[in-house]
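WARN  no MSA supplied for this record, continuing single-sequence
INFO  ligand: flavin-adenine dinucleotide
INFO  echoing inputs
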Amino acid sequence: MLYDNYQSPWLAEEELRILQDAAERFFEQEFVPHAERWREQGKVDRDAWRKAGEAGLLCAAIPGEYGGGGGDYRHETVIMEAQLRAALGSWGNQVHSTIVAPFIYHYGSEAQRQAWLPKMASGEAVGAIAMTEPNTGSDLQSVRTTALRDGDEYVLNGAKTYITNGQHADLVIVVAKTDPTLGAKGISLIVVEANTPGFGRGRNLKKLGMPAADTSELFFSDCRVPVSNRLGQEGRGFVQLMEQLPQERLNIAQAAVVIMERAVELTLDFVRDREAFGQKILDFQNTKFKLAECKTHALVARTFVDQCVLKLVEGELDSTTASMAKYWCTEKQCEVVDECVQLHGGAGYMDEYEISRMFTDGRVHKIYGGTNEIMKELISRSL
Ligand SMILES: Cc1cc2nc3c(=O)[nH]c(=O)nc-3n(C[C@H](O)[C@H](O)[C@H](O)COP(=O)(O)OP(=O)(O)OC[C@H]3O[C@@H](n4cnc5c(N)ncnc54)[C@H](O)[C@@H]3O)c2cc1C
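INFO  complex generated
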């Protein structure tokens, strides 16, 4: 453990520690042996989803009556932290379990919950959410994909890009304009099942990092889905997205904290072992000062996100605070990991060293879930 006398307050319950142990064991036994191959093939094996479902690691915060784990956000986050500590980078479960499943649970009808959540919890169906388009990312209300009503159906046309789980996805929540004459108020969330005619997947995009998490273009060409596939009321999509974003942003902030902690641990191991000029790298004052700074940043970030987790579980995490957590923790993560790469010397640049992968895999944290510039824009509205 990096800290001598700090324990996350939300992790106090024994049930969560049991889940933590089980998740760590699962990832070590079932995922780590395949991780290298998955990175090379650009996605995890399909079977990985089913195995994670069998082990109870999908949809942990969804009630048991829909096949989920019956927990809350703390359970989700215990699993995410275990995954990152196993040096796996991302494999799309944050999108599947922490974003897509909650949208269906919170806004879906009873029939929609029954139809989709049990399959997602077992790993039979993989979920994705498609907001970003080739011409629109941060400015979400300007999406051009349309879902126009024709009798009892919506007809979808448009293109999405950078969609996590795009290759594996069986269910995609599509952010589309049901009324293109309106801005944000014309947006609705429509679930498209991947076997629907008119739905197409593009390339599995090559990325700077996280190679095992597939990221794709998606296309909709006169793709007809029943009106009953809409989540909640027509025109409420933008509000629904805003309501769920604090959880997504906190999740990214927490991932950033785990990365900082692990980067410091890995670097300590390295500099304790390696020598230059007849002494351990750790014995140079620069090394000790840099790692002292990094450990301090990690603990300050950890205590902040821990408070946010407690607030989220109580239903009290506001958008400004979640944006602060996402912005600050991810900026610090990039600074800390950069220092840790430097302390590894040339090894820090080699793919076989975990620190180099943390540098590339983690860079996206400043970009997705709303860029850090957008986070500052949102925070500034509270001034
Ligand atoms: C690995 C990966 C996975 C992703 N997964 C998904 C997914 O599953 N689903 C999905 O829908 N999307 C996904 N995305 C997309 C991601 O959410 C967007 O890339 C992100 O929101 C930024 O949008 P953009 O790329 O269009 O950048 P742009 O919006 O074009 O921004 C370009 C630059 O301009 C800045 N900028 C924009 N507006 C402002 C402003 N008002 N003030 C100041 N600066 C501004 C931005 O901060 C950025 O620096 C993923 C992206 C990546 C890289």
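Residues 239-380 form a domain with the Butyryl-CoA Dehydrogenase, subunit A; domain 3 fold (CATH 1.20.140.10).
INFO  checksum written, moving to next record
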